[in-house]
């Protein structure tokens, strides 16, 4: 019997898995940049940073594991996509980002040690080795955090949110950068990519499915019911968190000067509100929250790569990814955020379309044809968005794409992907 208490614990576990670096560092900076448009921008952010991951989580939990989303692709395409996905959410981008958020938001504000490359390396080593020890001996860290540390973090965030609402530090300024020229909601949609939570949900859906299987819950209807029930708890908490952090950023002009990322804005704001006491509490919980994400994601990555060769075991990949995360983390948070965007613009649309195709899969007249045709269009146009972000897109191609709706907003792939989907339904021969 799966009780209401079990649903709450599962919901808190899901929230704990998603509550990583991007959930805290992006909204303050986006809110500051959006200024008076913070509410509209936060709505766009929630659509891609909360609702899409929720749908992905439910779909993957139902099919049992993330790899099922790519079963209709050629083997080489399946391996390329999944390997890229796990490297992006793992040791090449997201996990070094998690390490650096813990360093910049939790360690540096304590003023215990000087901010230099040596101390950065030492912290990264210690943080990742602790995570590796949990991964090598899988225990109860995620359920423990779901039961105890996540509620403690929520209490802190509620206290911060209430104080921000009651006594904001600054007046809200006019929008700047992309928010000054583009619709706030589309800029928010794009910024929601940066949480990487749709990609993470492909890995976390399998974790939820296994957690339910342990309780002998495996039928499609039951898995859907309990995943939706528990997932909605995470949706509500994350949405409230994002709206609060957007407003924090929008009212942060007093502390945002010279800040290069949202983590710095958040830390300075908390310090201004509560002084050193609040900083100590925040630091401890931020470290544990990021440690939970590090363990959950890296273990999922190691589990996937361990399937390629019997001699390259799960433990081997845990050690490899720990070393790689520690190395890449030395790039620094601001630089990591800058180079992450092109990778996300390329892979995120593909992940979204794979989830959508899985939802309508049983209604497709020719599954393989529709998958190939739709994903080819998606990859082609998302690659253009990625190249444009890096200023590598040939000018003649960019001039042509400027006529495409949503291209200027970084979502040029959307309409071509669904046009290709529609054409595939008309052109594809029916299979028996």
From TrEMBL:
Topology in membrane: Multi-pass membrane protein
Keywords linked to the UniProt accession: Amino-acid transport, Cell membrane, Membrane, Transmembrane, Transmembrane helix, Transport
GO cellular component: plasma membrane
Main location: membrane
Biological process annotations from GO: isoleucine transport; L-leucine transport
InterPro entries, per database record: Brnchd-chn_aa_trnsp_Livcs
The keyword Magnesium belongs to this UniProt entry's keyword annotation: no
Entry annotated with the keyword Cell membrane: yes
Listed transmembrane segments: 7-26, 38-64, 76-98, 118-136, 148-170, 190-214, 226-248, 280-302, 314-333, 339-357, 369-390, 410-428
One Gene Ontology MF term: L-leucine transmembrane transporter activity
Compartments where located: Cell inner membrane; Cell membrane
Entry function: Component of the transport system for branched-chain amino acids.
Listed PANTHER family: BRANCHED-CHAIN AMINO ACID PERMEASE BRNQ (PTHR30588:SF0), BRANCHED-CHAIN AMINO ACID TRANSPORT SYSTEM 2 CARRIER PROTEIN (PTHR30588)
Family: Belongs to the branched chain amino acid transporter family.
Name of the protein this chain belongs to: Branched-chain amino acid transport system carrier protein
Annotated organism of origin: Rodentibacter trehalosifermentans
């Amino acid at each position: 019997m799966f009780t209401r208490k079990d649903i709450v614990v599962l919901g808190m576990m899901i929230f704990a898995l998603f509550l990583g670096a991007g959930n805290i560092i992006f909204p303050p900076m986006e809110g500051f940049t959006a200024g008076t448009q913070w509410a509209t921008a936060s709505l766009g952010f929630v659509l891609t940073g909360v609702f899409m991951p929720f749908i992905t989580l439910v779909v993957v939990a139902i099919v049992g594991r993330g790899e099922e989303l790519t079963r209709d692709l050629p083997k080489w395409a399946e391996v390329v996509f999944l390997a890229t996905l796990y490297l992006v959410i793992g040791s090449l981008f997201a996990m070094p980002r998690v390490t650096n958020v813990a360093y910049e938001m939790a360690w540096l504000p304590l003023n215990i040690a000087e901010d230099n490359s040596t101390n950065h390396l030492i912290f990264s080593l210690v943080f990742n080795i602790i995570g590796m020890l949990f991964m090598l001996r899988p225990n109860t860290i995620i359920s423990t955090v779901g039961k105890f540390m996540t509620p403690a973090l929520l209490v802190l965030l509620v206290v911060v949110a209430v104080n921000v609402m009651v006594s904001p530090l600054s007046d809200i300024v006019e929008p700047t950068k992309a928010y000054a020229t583009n619709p706030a909601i589309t800029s928010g949609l794009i910024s929601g990519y940066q949480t990487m939570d749709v990609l993470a949900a492909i890995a976390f859906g399998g974790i939820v499915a296994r957690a339910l299987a342990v309780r002998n819950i495996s039928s499609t209807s039951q898995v859907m019911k309990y995943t939706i029930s528990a997932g909605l708890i995470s949706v509500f908490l994350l949405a409230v968190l994002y709206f609060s952090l957007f407003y924090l950023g929008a009212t942060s002009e007093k502390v945002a000067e010279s800040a290069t990322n949202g983590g710095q804005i958040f830390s300075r704001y908390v310090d201004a509100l509560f002084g050193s006491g609040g900083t100590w509490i925040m630091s401890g919980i931020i470290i544990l929250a990021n440690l939970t994400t590090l363990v959950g994601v890296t273990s999922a990555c190691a589990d996937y790569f361990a399937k390629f060769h019997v001699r390259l075991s799960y433990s081997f990949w845990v050690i490899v990814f720990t070393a790689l995360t520690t190395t890449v983390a030395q790039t620094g948070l601001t630089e990591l955020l800058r180079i992450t965007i092109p990778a996300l613009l390329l892979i995120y649309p593909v992940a979204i379309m794979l989830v959508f195709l899985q939802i309508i899969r049983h209604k497709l007249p020719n599954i393989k044809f529709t998958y190939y045709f739709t994903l080819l269009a998606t990859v082609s146009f998302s690659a253009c968005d990625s190249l444009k972000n890096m200023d590598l897109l040939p000018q003649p191609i960019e001039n042509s794409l400027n006529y495409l709706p949503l291209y200027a907003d970084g979502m040029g792939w959307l309409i071509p992907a669904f046009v290709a989907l529609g054409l595939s339904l008309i052109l594809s021969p029916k299979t028996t």
